[in-house]
Specification:
Length: 354
């Protein structure tokens, strides 16, 4: 049994822990198993770049951030585009899957990775997906690995902003990762005690945000923390096309700078913008993610033994299970705007700018 493993898309803590969980399970339980590490995600599969993984490769990587295999972003929409030799990337991947002699392929990745995995599966490759992303936006699983570590990191960032914000009497506008889904901003915003939380799912009124900050200032609270998701937008911006939105923001990819300026003017407070950026994806996975990743990795091993392909691993109601790739590919799990977490936050006075 020859099994390929690749990690694709943006990295996150827990990738190596999943690789280890799977590798250890495979060498413990599957007879004559050979594991093949594919370099840099689908990029390595397109180029045919791989190496054999030995049991010692899985030692010492449980706590290691990033991915020992390397990763890259390979846009889904380019997979079926022909190159100068009239060959598509999909075709090259299928050819290399065969050349490598793979019986199946594990794809660790986010929403884009799953779309390509579904495509490969439809083309006859035996694929098992594993749900990775700090965005927590993969359909059909309650949680993705990497998410809770990022929540811990983003929460610590917000925690640390409190003391400096309070000392100076400033409003700190902190931009949290998440372009389409606001899970990370919602969780870290509540856990870090943010006063305003802005999500891509709830277009906001900048006026209402400024008023919330001014209200705090009027009641003697000299500082405020505004947690803004990368993908947050005003009600006005939500009606625009992406290009138009970018033009309105003067080339800024996010609304954060413009919002900080608006709050300063309208609420009469001093503001600072903080962007923790890729720090939220770096370093060692949390204990939660080490456990989840180990469970996901070993479960993928069981799926291989059962010959169950064309699926992706998932956590549903605290049980590790699987979904058909065809059912989840292309769907995003966004924050429901009537969810309990938002209700809780609003009940204690957090503003969502609505
Ligand atoms: O999908 C994970 C994520 O970290 C998003 O939250 C963020 O918008 C994006 O990746 C950043 O991408 P890149 O790694 O290409 O800068």
């Amino acid at each position: 049994m020859k099994i390929g493993i690749l990690t694709s898309g943006g990295d996150c803590p827990g990738l190596n822990a999943v690789i280890r969980g799977f590798g250890k399970y495979a060498f413990e339980n599957i007879k004559n198993v050979q594991l093949i590490g594919i370099a840099d995600g689908y990029g390595g599969l397109i180029r045919g770049e791989c190496r054999a993984l030995k049991p010692q490769d899985f030692t010492g990587i449980l706590t290691l951030g990033g991915t020992i295999l390397g990763t890259s972003r390979q846009p889904f929409k380019l997979m079926t585009v022909e190159d100068e030799n009239s060959v598509t990337r999909l075709e090259l991947m299928k050819q290399n899957y065969k050349k490598m002699g793979l019986d199946c392929l594990l794809t660790l990745g986010g929403a884009g990775t799953h779309k390509t995995a579904a495509l490969l599966s439809a083309e006859g490759c035996n694929v098992i997906g594993l749900p990775k992303t700090i965005d927590n936006d993969i359909w059909g699983t309650d949680v993705t690995f990497g998410f809770h570590t990022a929540v811990d990191i983003a929460t610590e960032c917000i925690d640390r902003l409190h003391s400096t914000a309070a000392s100076h009497g400033r409003t700190m506008v902190v931009e949290i990762m998440g372009n389409k889904a606001g899970w990370l901003t919602l969780y870290s915003g509540i856990a870090g005690g943010a006063d305003v939380i802005l999500l891509p799912e709830i277009p906001f009124s900048a006026d209402k945000v400024a008023k919330a900050v001014a209200r705090r200032a009027d009641s003697g609270k000299a500082f405020s923390i505004v947690a803004v998701a990368e993908g947050a937008m005003t009600v006005e911006e939500s009606k625009m096309k992406k290009k138009e939105r970018l033009e309105k923001r003067g080339g800024d990819a996010t609304v954060t700078n413009a919002l900080a300026k608006y709050i300063a003017e309208k609420a009469g407070v001093e503001t600072r913008v903080v962007v923790p950026g890729h720090i939220q994806r770096g370093g060692s996975p949390s204990a939660y993610d080490r456990l989840l990743s180990t469970e996901f990795g070993s479960f993928a091993g069981k799926l291989v033994e059962e010959g169950r392909f064309g699926v992706t691993v998932a956590m549903v109601k605290n049980r590790v299970t699987y979904n058909a790739l065809a059912d989840i590919a292309g769907k995003a799990k966004l924050v429901p705007i009537d969810c309990q977490e938002i209700e809780t936050a609003e009940s204690i006075g957090v503003s969502f700018g609505r």
